[in-house]
Amino acid sequence: LMEGPFGDHTGFYSLADFYPAFHVTAITMRKDPIYPTTIVGKPPMEDYFLGKATERIFLPLLKMIVPDIVDYDLPISGAFHNCAFIKIKKEYPYQARRVMHAIWGAGQMSFTKFIIVVDEHVDVHNEQDVLFHLFANCDPERDTEIVHGPLDILDHAAPEMGLGSKIGFDATIKLPQEGRVRRYPKELQMDQKTKELVTRKWTEYNL
Asked: Which residue in 30, 76, 84, 104 is deepest, having the highest Cβ count within 10 Å?
């Protein structure tokens, strides 16, 4: 049965295509019914909170499959299945690439089109922090991994429905064994004690 276009949770109208049809054989009624539904549209909508809950629920399960993972975030800008920020405790060369491929082989996570892997100190729930480390630590030629495989059927950028390319970015600090690596500079960071002192005395500075 041809269905669509349909306003979807991606924020776009999904393209018309053939989908299964179901046939109603009976309808029952009740007083004071409860009708469970969500309204979809350009993020964020109601399904944003369902998606975030699912993200948290599945973290322990994902860590069982990929123990390298410390935490992860499926940003709203990626509509949950297009992008993943992955935090790891880096211990060996090319660990980020291993994690990328493990995620691409893990059930529904296989549809993830963009993966950004960062070090343990990065806040994956802060998109600005993730992008800061991506732009600072990633060399496009050396630190990207492009593969081909299944994508979400709602991905209208895919050359074929449900099939296309995916890319992973290694935004971790590189080890000497990872090729053409210069010494990484120390990141500017204020210790927590100094932050608290400045905050406490801010009004005294007359700035």
From this structure: 84
